[in-house]
Amino acid sequence: MKITDLKVWLTRPAGRTWVFLQIDTDEGISGVGEASSPGGGGSILVGRTIRLLKEASYTGEFRDTLIGENPMDIDRLWHKVYRRFTALGSRGLPTAVVSGIDIALWDIKGKALGRPVYDILGGKFRDKVLLYTHVNPSKGPKAAADHAKRLVAEGYTALKTDPFSEEMGPQHRRYTTGTISPQGEEKAEEIIAAIREAVGPKVEILIDAHGNFNVPTAVRLMNRLSKYNLTWFEEPCQPESFDALQQVRQQTDVPISVGERLYTRYDFVPVFKNRLADYIMPDIVWTGGISEMKKIATMAEAYYIPISPHDAMGPLQAIAGAHVMMTVPNFYRLEFSRASLEAHNGCINPPLDIRNGYIHLSDRPGLGVELNLDYIKAHSDPDWEG
Asked: Contact, 301 vs 328, CB < 8 A?
């Protein structure tokens, strides 16, 4: 079997640009993948870079193409793509590109073997994948509490929110001082208190700080909110400094989750070695795809740390993550954007099977879904050419 074509589409049906790709072969089997990286035009960069893996008018400087390669050689092709771009740095752009390719290659292998991806990754450890989803905090404590109750009624037993978003949202991914006003801090506590009162003691509450805080601010906020029995406080500070994370770790008992902006198994080594987190949350379309997610999960298992994949992009991200999580023992929950469900289902056939707080995977070969190109093209990103 040989790769004959590589196609890429950028679509924007739900406020963020998703990158989908398809790898075709000479045996009529095609695989689909996702490499979404929204924010700052990141998906545009990823899409254009994926095209370079098809177009190679010059073969020097590692510019060789994927066309003509055997798609069954997943690990070798992972390293080929990853190392091609590491002169620019090995984190972010190269890993998003390799993630999408890797997911599509696993889809091809599953289809060629007539088995779902989870089956060829080692088989089922569970029959369905537990989810957590998000509470919208933007309209204040009462609205957040009402939203939380509706989600619990749908079957979700763990809810995440960013209670600081009213003040910190405009600074999302734009870290400067790392502080929040007393009024913003008070509002955040009111939101978490309202959610806890609404859902009771058994529903888990997760806080996402989006890395917005400096060390003393993060510590103060975590300790202040600890009385609401938090399952975790996510990304208390920016991901570049493990020393900062260690300082936070030493000054609070609130569990910490990190990893959505850590790339490949190599970035997770200091987290495990220095006991910097209670949960890890690698992103399957940023950290290296299905292959890398499985390796990171296995590393975490050796440290008895649960894995809970980050999932804030398109439907193939959720599906690929679910396939891996079907196979690992140290799984906590898979993140899922309930608010994006309509857009997710518009992009794929058949739709996601989500019931009572779980995603259910079929026994169809590969990932078990195909792209709905009519819908994807109808919502094309206006900055994407073709």
From this structure: yes
In this structure, which topology does domain 3-114+373-378 adopt according to CATH? Enolase-like; domain 1 (3.30.390)
Alpha carbon separation from 58 to 64, 65, 80, 84, 93 (Å, rounded): 8, 10, 17, 14, 22
Decide: helix, strand or coil at residue 21: strand
Strands 158-161 vs 204-208: parallel, antiparallel or unpaired: parallel
Cis peptide before 350 (omega within 30 of 0): yes
What are the boundaries of each domain within the chain? 3-114+373-378, 129-367
Q: Could you tell me what percent of the chain has a pLDDT over 90?
A: 89
Output the pLDDT for position 89. Answer: 81
Indicate the DSSP class of residue 163: T
Give 250-284 pLDDT, tens digit per residue: 999 999 999 999 999 999 999 999 999 999 999 99
Amino acid at 380: S
Banded model confidence at residue 60, pLDDT cuts 50, 70, 90:
low
Domain 129-367 is classified in which CATH homologous superfamily? Enolase-like C-terminal domain (3.20.20.120)
Calculate the dihedral angle through the C-alpha atoms of 148, 153, 158, 162, rounding to the nearest 10 degrees: -20
pLDDT (mean) for 163-168: 95
What is the CA angle 269-257-174, rounded to 5?
95
pLDDT digits (tens, 9 = 90+) for 277-306: 999 999 999 999 999 999 999 999 999 999
Phi, psi of 188 (to 5 degrees): -60, -45
Cβ–Cβ under 8 Å, residues 36 and 18: yes
